[in-house]
Amino acid sequence: MDFDYEQKIIKVPAYLAKNTNARILPLSKKIAKALNMLIKENRVFDDIDFIFLSNYGGKIDPSWVRTRIKEYGQKANIKDVRVSPHTFRHTFAKFYILNGGDAFTLQRILDHSTMNMVRKYIQMNGEDIKEQHHQFSPINNL
């Protein structure tokens, strides 16, 4: 992956992508700034190839990340919901839409080939639907 602080993007090359499609992931200003700070902190280690490192400058194993996220979910007493990196992806997708993002852009960000997959990611409950209706109903502008 290639992080570009000025453009606030991460470039994912085809060989790293799940479906072998290269793509560009936009980042918020806050996330870009935090990643940039982390990269600067990591400079204490020589010849680093990764952004997220262990305390000793080594590569962090993905299974370690999954385990830690699950542990944090247990400590936060989160029940009846799987707590995982994939759950963060679903949560991002749902809140992206709830905050006014459009589904077509989200489809590109998530790199889904069909809108049906996006639909699975952004399952709304009754309160979500009600709030969106109140906020975006065309009747409000008459």
Give a short summary of the structure:
The chain has about 140 residues and is mainly α.
Question: What are the main properties of this structure?
Answer:
142 residues; mainly alpha; 3-stranded antiparallel β-sheet; 6 helices; globular
- Helix and strand sequence: EEEHHHHHH
Which overall shape is indicated by the principal axes computed on the Cα atoms?
globular
**Strand elements, count:** 3
- Radius of gyration (CA) equals 18 Å
Task: Please provide a written account of the structure.
This protein has 142 residues and is mainly alpha-helical. Helix content is 48%, strand content 8%.
Summarize the topology.
Elements: E1 2-4, E2 9-12, E3 23-26, H1 29-42, H2 62-75, H3 85-98, H4 103-110, H5 115-121, H6 126-136
Antiparallel strand pairs: 1-2, 2-3
